[in-house]
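Dear colleague,

As promised, here are the two records you asked about, laid out in our usual form so they can be pasted straight into your sheet.

NAME FIELD: protein one
SEQUENCE, THEN STRUCTURE:
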Amino acid sequence: MSENKEPHVAKFVYDFTEGNKDLKDLLGGKGANLAEMTNLGLPVPPGFTITTEACKVYLDSGAEPAALRDEVSAHLDALESRMGKKLGQADDPLLVSVRSGAKFSMPGMMDTVLNIGLSDESVQGLAQQAGDERFAWDSYRRLIQMFGKTVLGIDGELFEEALEKAKEAKQVTVDTDLAAADLKKLVTAFKKIVKKEAGRDFPQDPREQMDLAVKAVFDSWNTDRAKLYRRQERIPHDLGTAVNVCSMVFGNLGPDSGTGVAFTRDPASGHQGVYGDYLQNAQGEDVVAGIRNTVPLADLERIDKKSYDQLMQIMETLENHYKDLCDIEFTIERGQLWMLQTRVGKRTAGAAFRIATQLVDQGLIDETEALQRVSGAQLAQLMFPRFDDGAKVEQVGRGIAASPGAAVGKAVFDSYTAVKWSRSGEKVILVRRETNPDDLDGMIAAEGILTSRGGKTSHAAVVARGMGKTCVCGAEELEVDTKRRRMTVPGGRVVEEGDVISIDGSSGKVYLGEVPVVPSPVVEYFEGRMHPGADDADELVEAVHRMMAFADRKRRLRVRANADNAEDALRARRFGAQGIGLCRTEHMFLGDRRELVERLILADTQDEREESLKALLPLQKKDFVELFEAMDGLPVTIRLLDPPLHEFLPDITELSVRVALAESRQEPHENELRLLQAVHRLHEQNPMLGLRGVRLGLVIPGLFTMQVRAIAEAAAERRAAKGDPRAEIMIPLVGTVQELEIVREEADQVIAEVQAATGTQLKLAIGTMIELPRAALTAGQIAEAAEFFSFGTNDLTQTVWGFSRDDVEASFFTAYLEKGIFGVSPFETIDKDGVGSLVRAAAEAGRRTRPDLKLGVCGEHGGDPESVHFFHEAGLDYVSCSPFRIPVARLEAGRAATESAGSDHR
């Protein structure tokens, strides 16, 4: 990048006295918080921060900004003047640390170099000034070791091996037992490693050390580990890191010195108290590296009460100032406490909820801010059962963590066996290469689902999440043989049908045998089995209950459920659903009814077709009566039949084999031959884009009108029983208003007939799914015939991107994520720029035509935390998701409504 393309910023370097905690974009989290602590008058070693803008210029162009060197020199001069000594001077050297510091905390992912300024000459001056020769040479060997590994790219094991040899020669086990003479020899050995591995001497010029260390920190932004961490944490890749140059303070000056990490509350539980670790006579990396055992922070009161009392006061100051759990790094140098870092601390999901409510009770934050301190992802973690961390396990594989939770059961390899064994009281795990709609009964019966193929949006994953079932998909190292009813794991061991296995849907891990499971009290609360305020109520449940109440008071978006039967509907209602946003009627036609649908599709005559419809009508009506009863008084959006046609037809290969075998044996096969001819006639190369949805209703006379009649008669029956059914009829896969108009005209006629026959006035709204780009682009026209839109973002994502959801995750999504093309799968979180633009445009166009048009979403995105925020911003009225994701959607809807008032707490 040429010089004139550098960002127009006033400067690239800020002294700690110049910044504040709100400048994280520019100074990074560490730099902004060092500046904030400096402003608070806390004991922070003087220093300065090189901004993220300088890093971005460097990463884009391969060279530092032209003005950077002069700015660093000016700030270094000011630091030297303040400290009364110069960087690396011979008699009394100023030493500095060079540390990374991105906007969002990335602990351990990027680089740090301590003790910069030491050389063969200045180490002597440091020893004289400190009155401790051992300390000086220990600091020098640390510099060479860190510089060699971090800046020069030398394998860190080489330095560790040399250190171990030095300890062996002295017959000691810890580095603190090495004397000054031993450390001098170690410095010589380290310098030889540098010369051999880097092809150059360790730099003796302190400014060269600092400049090279700054570049190394910039470069560490793009290391593999840093990129992987950012992908996992959903941190943007274009932020860059700041670099903090801080005057050194030393915790390795003897027993009256040390270093530690402190938390203002327990990050695991959220409880208040003294939490952290302390290590005497050590520098900061010793605590992190674990090379020596730390002592609990509470022991510091006995070791150095003055410093302990001061630290407790500072911790209280910081928590009250940041109004949150703070994570603190500190050093004590000969009895003087120094603060090296503070940040809003990472915490477990349970701690997040407890701390948020505690801070509300303390008056530090209000409900609006409390909602910004928790997330739907954290709530989801709390809802799923989990394995006991202390259990002994035998891991045999790992796949994609498709649906969280912990499941244990006997391995079964087909749905029939899963149902049969489950009815006998057995707990089973359904193991398949991949699942399809025929496996639904087995999936319902199973404790969890394990497949060797597929990704997070495969059939198994989507259905499992909808049911709240644990699921691990795409465990490719497991060889599943459904015919022989067994699975071979790495190493050749065979898992036979009936062998117990355990799967962890939160990590994707697969275990042999039974791993003990710990249930979630949060789900017991949502199910109504645990009541906040009761004597035995879990403290965490109390916190979750309060946060959900906050969210429900604040949110604008209503939350409905995707549910296909009364059982799911009742569960959804317990979880707080305000209606059903998607009832998929095709799920009602699987199992015993599939043959009736098959006969309907393949019917040659009107009589055959009417016979099938007549048989289906009472079954459908019963479905809807049960659903309306479960959701009495709440809206129920019923999607008319929308399967790809092949899901209701016999497999063409199996049918061909049956016909061929019958012919070879000269057995009667007229029916099979007729069926095969029909299947050939209806066979589609791409059934997802073929005869389905509204097209199926238009091509097969009577299919949709049968369903509408069943809905209308069920509603009339419930009204007669003093119920309050609120049915909404949704037409799927509409691409043009003419399709909707034809179906609507037929539906209105059927509804009128039912009203006349029953004497019941029915109010049945008729709308459509917006799941094709053309529907979104012509939404203004379609709204003339639709009373509501529900965005089917699963299919809309497929058709906008040109992806087949069942195929692409397994084939190239991993590569796309690794290359940064995707930050996250567009099937997991809505693609705001592409799919989202169509949603916004369709919503606006629809409401221009029909201002009272109701807008919702019923794709998988309806329960995704980030997507819920988008739907709030886009002005939708509701989201719909699987029952187990309803609490997540409720919480995120509340957060979305208050987001502008909250602060950034990643």
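NAME FIELD: protein two
SEQUENCE, THEN STRUCTURE:
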Amino acid sequence: MNQDYIKPDNWSIIEEGFDLERVKSSESLFSIGNGAMGQRANFEEFYSGNTFQGSYIAGIYYPDKTKVGWWKNGYPEYFAKVLNAPVWIGILIEINGETLDIAACKLTNFRRELNMKEGWYNRSFSATLNKGIEIDVNVRRFLSLDLDELGVIKYEITPKNNDATIVFKPYLDAGVHNEDANWEEKFWEPLETQHKNNEAFVVARTFKTHFEVATYMHNSIFINNENQNAEPTFVDTTSDKVVFTYEQLVSKGQNVAFQKLGGYTVSMNHAAAELIPAAQKVIQQGLALGYDTLLQNQIDAWAKIWEMSDITIDGDVKAQQGIRFNIFQLNQTYLGKDSRLNIGPKGFTGEKYGGSTYWDTEAYCIPFYMATKDQQVARNLLAYRYNQLDKAIENAEKLGFKNGAALYPMVTMNGEECHNEWEITFEEIHRNGAIAFAVFNYYRFTGDYSYIPEKGLEVLIGIARFWHQRATFSTYRNQYVILGVTGPNEYENNVNNNFYTNYIAKWCIDYTIEQIEKVKQEYASDFVRIMSKVKLEPTEILHWKKVADHMYFPYSEEHDVYLQQDGFLDKELVKVHDLDKSQRPINQKWSWDRILRSPYIKQADTLQGFYFFEDHFTREQLEKHFDFYEPFTVHESSLSPCVHSIQAANLGRMEQAYTFYLRTSRLDLDDYNKEVEEGLHITSMAGTWMSIVEGFGGMRVKNDTLHFEPRIPKDWNGYSFKINFRNQILKVAVHQNETNFTLEGETAISVFVNGKEVLVEPNSLVTV
């Protein structure tokens, strides 16, 4: 049974009632972020129960020494950790001399709300402390989108049955640690503390990477909305911590509000000597605006995001809540402002996977950002990989590749490979293909070819060189093979001729050759510059072409399907529905050896190729492969349900498509994989968006034109989404019996609906 405590709501994530056992899950689900920093929903006050403390800053990491039993040549020296950042949210509270700890007092009316429409997190409860004082508490927290170095907390307490002496002890603490540290090392070195009046600063530096961060706070106290102009009565400092003490007598029924501004200024954006002055400037900006204006600006900023990215669903509250939760978390994680940043699988909600960049960005996230933002956001994600091309070449050189062959890392923060599992690091090389596919996908959707001659072609050439060198000519088959790989299905390691890997390798080479010729014909000066830089000769291209034209793909005549890898049919082919439910999830119940020998598929593998290259295969081929592979798929990767939902919809199997959609959209809300306390699955959330737009909406780009094959689950009254296609915004509203199109733009566009061309004029409604 999956968890089921989140209340259905169109715009909010709501928890009612306090349960010690679900605190860490809720810390993940109620996380907040603004693209520059983020936090798990930890309590501000002291909490004696089980918790996973987590605050994170975009781009700040530490190279934690890889922990392995023995060393192998070429093995990554470190695993990049997204660091648990110094704490700024903390506010210890004493009431009549007793510490407020909700794990140790009588609690009623506990409620959390993450308001996705307006971008804030609220927590409220009533408590009776051991000495008998009764209080009502309401806490609101948000991270400003406009001032992305600023966070805001308003912590309100109302004594109900007596006057109370309330002591607030706000603090900053750089003495933090990571849950996933390999060697229990400390990652932060304290440098300096400062405080004056109601402001405090702790400056700390990461070991090894030497990022410097100023963590800051400013505190104010209001009683019944009147500023008390309070000053701290005591200040306690250590090398890495500052604690202020404020004491306030509050009458029965009075509301005391402790307002705390805090956050980070970082050396990625400021000179190290200017970190504290920069923080002081942010504080002054926050104070000048005031709490109410800061909150209204937050609401307005989120309204602007939702205006473009919202998906509405009429008639299914859980489905509506799920898609908005996914869209909300994607926007909290990455807003496209900084090309140095990328989208970690856990975003700002946890530490698993190192929080670094995976192939998820290119395969799943770029379509979402292309369609819901300005195209520059997606271009920044492509530029991120171009800027790390030299490192990708170094990664390949460490493994014996040469001549500018590029192997992009499975996991990275700065372009270096930093993943610590051999079978993934060296064998899951299909990630190279996703990066090339993103270049193709960007041009297909935006029509902006300029990226390829400016930057993209160099990336494509490096990747093509890798595939050429990684393939081996088999005299037995008289074809080229790719040996010793792990495909997208990580439940098979060190296999030969993974279909998806071989197919995308061939495609990468063919596509690169096409782009070389196009740039040669149409961008002559760029062509000369690039060829001079990469030293590419026509004879080398001929060698590539030979590999692509003679690539081997394993195939079963008996089943009339491409095989996931050479040995797939050697397995005991027991389907998932015949597997005892007590054995699920297998990644938590079985040994790794047993998993590797099983036929079970973690996520779309062969079907990932059918998703990327849909036009290369007939619908009948898709159906045959879907029917063969899906019954063996356990969907224990967050990236799995979305691809299967899209393909089930494409096959007209709407009940199955809807089931997969619910799983992908509510993967974390309902904790399907029983691991949400470790953090959310951010990158797969983009796949949820694709499940509706590409799955139910059937959106494709063919020959520079949008095509739709709209479908709708039987219990929905309708759904709608917007697409920013080549700087014009098209709204699509699908109902049971019709589809409506409206265009926000200046030039009419043609779209195809179920194969029929339809002209959509600006600011007019077209019904099909």
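A couple of things worth noting about protein two: Residues 275-309 form the longest helix (35 residues). The chain is about 30% helix and 25% strand.

Best,
R.
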